[in-house]
């Protein structure tokens, strides 16, 4: 798979079209992850602009710039899928219940968020789980396993929300293949948080 790293400059993203929406497949990527995947990322969750949860109904964990480099130096901007895990501890104290620190499916956006016209490249992970609280300041680990689609610009917030919902369905279906599912128990994750795995 050939995915060119993004330049340091924001580019003009294509506008999402009706034919793109209608033509979206519900399963993406080969039967086994292929290079550059898997890509391993980790970092402390930062505050973004807070629009993910408020505007889009899709809270995201923003990674610090240096944590993005293993990905942004080898892949292009876009939407990706994989697994992620949030640490139970914050500032040395266990604050998150065990169930919230499992390895969970995620969708991730790497890009300039053209709909919001961001000035810096960001990587944001949406973990498909209902967390009772935010987890700013927690360590997050992620294994990125595949590419879903390019980042797009939108004429309405509803269009972006609709595509993110489709991204989540595509990610769940694409991860439900043995060669992807096995990364849930990868030693990169903190398995001590998962006595029942
Ligand atoms: C799965 C997923 C797909 C996304 N796709 C796009 C996209 O195509 N275009 C875009 O402008 N932003 C996209 N975003 C980024 C959102 O605009 C961003 O998460 C939102 O602005 C929240 O950012 P904030 O936490 O910094 O407020 C996507 C986010 C996710 C989680």
From TrEMBL:
**Any idea what job this protein has?**
Catalyzes the phosphorylation of riboflavin (vitamin B2) to form flavin mononucleotide (FMN) coenzyme.
What is this protein called in UniProt? Riboflavin kinase
Name the encoding gene, please. Answer: fmn1
Keywords, comma-separated and alphabetical? ATP-binding, Flavoprotein, FMN, Kinase, Nucleotide-binding, Transferase
Q: What is its EC number?
A: 2.7.1.26
Question: Where are the residues of the annotated region Disordered?
Answer: 1-28
Similarity-based family = Belongs to the flavokinase family.
Could you tell me the Gene Ontology terms of the biological process aspect for this record?
A: FMN biosynthetic process; riboflavin biosynthetic process
Q: State the taxonomy lineage.
A: Eukaryota, Fungi, Dikarya, Basidiomycota, Agaricomycotina
Q: In which pathway does it act?
A: Cofactor biosynthesis; FMN biosynthesis; FMN from riboflavin (ATP route): step 1/1
In the record, what terms sit under GO molecular function? ATP binding; riboflavin kinase activity
- Which segments constitute the Riboflavin kinase domain? 39-176
Positions of transmembrane segments: none
């Amino acid at each position: 798979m050939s995915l060119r790293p993004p330049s340091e400059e924001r580019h003009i993203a294509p506008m999402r079209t009706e034919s793109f929406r209608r033509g979206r497949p519900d399963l993406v990527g080969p039967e086994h992850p292929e290079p550059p995947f898997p890509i391993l990322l980790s970092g402390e969750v930062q505050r973004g602009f807070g629009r993910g949860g408020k505007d889009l109904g899709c809270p995201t964990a923003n990674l610090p710039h240096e944590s993005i480099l293993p990905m942004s130096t080898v892949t292009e901007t876009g939407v990706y899928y994989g697994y992620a895990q949030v640490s139970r501890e914050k500032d040395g104290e266990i604050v998150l219940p065990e169930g919230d620190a499992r390895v969970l499916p995620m969708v991730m956006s790497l890009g300039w968020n053209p709909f919001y016209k961001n000035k810096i490249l960001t990587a944001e992970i949406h973990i498909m789980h209902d967390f009772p609280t935010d987890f700013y300041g927690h360590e997050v680990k992620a294994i990125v396993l595949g590419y879903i689609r390019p980042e797009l610009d939108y004429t309405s917030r509803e269009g972006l929300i609709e595509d993110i919902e489709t991204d989540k369905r595509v990610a769940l279906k694409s991860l439900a293949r043995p060669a992807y599912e096995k990364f849930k128990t990868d030693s990169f994750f903190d398995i001590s948080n998962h006595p029942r795995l």
